[in-house]
Amino acid sequence: MKIALIGYGKMGKMIEEIAVHRGHHIVLKIDEYNLADFTKEKIAKADVAIEFTGPDSAYANVKRLLECDIPVVCGSTGWLEKLGETKELCLERNGSFIYASNFSVGVNIFFELNKKLASLIAPHKDYEVQVTEIHHTAKKDAPSGTAITIAEQILENMKSKKNWVNHMSDNVEDLEIISERVDPAAGTHKVKYSSAIDDIEIIHTAHSRRGFALGAVLAAEYISNKKGVFNMKDVLNLH
């Protein structure tokens, strides 16, 4: 499989290492220093593109790739207000697109545990819930996309919570997401349910970016010959 990497920072380099190890070829690498190479002619050499940049550039990058009829795997966070529009564009062009707030196999299993735990605790009103996310100080967005996914899953299953906030709150209808920035944390996400009697807590701790990079390559392998909008549940058969 021929892969275009849109974003060639630490994550892009890790994706390259894993992709090459799995027998794939990197035919295009785009970062802030060679944006002039981000052309339709050069994109066309790829079977699939993997986009990991930032919230300010992700939408434009993905839009350009879809308009070039290249399957796209996107892991950039902080641009979700454009996600619905992007999915519509993919379907209009009969393209292929996967977005995930986190591509780690372990995190996506954690998501399923989170939904189940929230649904089990929902009838028990004595429990209060809080989400904590810890990342390195270079992370550009807060809360993390993963934490937002976790919070939205809880909101879907616990009707006592109406919305999430990224600060401490005295409003019992608010779901608190506490963001901490500590080097060299690769990413830790915690969901804690507390009552006067006991606490229940689930935690996922990433030891490196490797799990995220592997998941992105698995997603690229999955959509390289498919049409439609997919997610990591499809890739990992978690339905």
Task: Briefly characterize the structure.
This protein is of the alpha/beta class. 36% of the residues lie in helices and 24% in strands. It folds into two domains: 129 residues, Rossmann fold; 101 residues, Dihydrodipicolinate Reductase, domain 2 (2-Layer Sandwich), CATH 3.30.360.
Widest β-sheet, arrangement of strands: 2-1-3-4-5-11
Q: What is the CATH homologous superfamily assignment of the largest domain?
A: NAD(P)-binding Rossmann-like Domain
CATH architectural name of the largest domain: 3-Layer(aba) Sandwich
**How does the major sheet shape up?**
6 strands, parallel
Termini separation (Å)? 26 Å
Please report the first level of CATH classification, the CATH class of the largest domain: Alpha Beta
The residue-averaged pLDDT reads 95
Topology at a glance:
Layout: E1 2-6, H1 10-21, E2 25-30, H2 40-43, E3 48-51, H3 58-67, E4 72-74, H4 83-92, E5 96-99, H5 105-121, E6 128-135, H6 145-157, E7 163-165, E8 174-181, E9 188-194, E10 199-205, H7 210-223, E11 228-230, H8 232-236
Parallel strand pairs: 1-2, 1-3, 3-4, 4-5, 5-11, 6-8, 7-8
Antiparallel strand pairs: 6-9, 9-10
Helix pairs in contact: 1-7, 3-4, 5-6
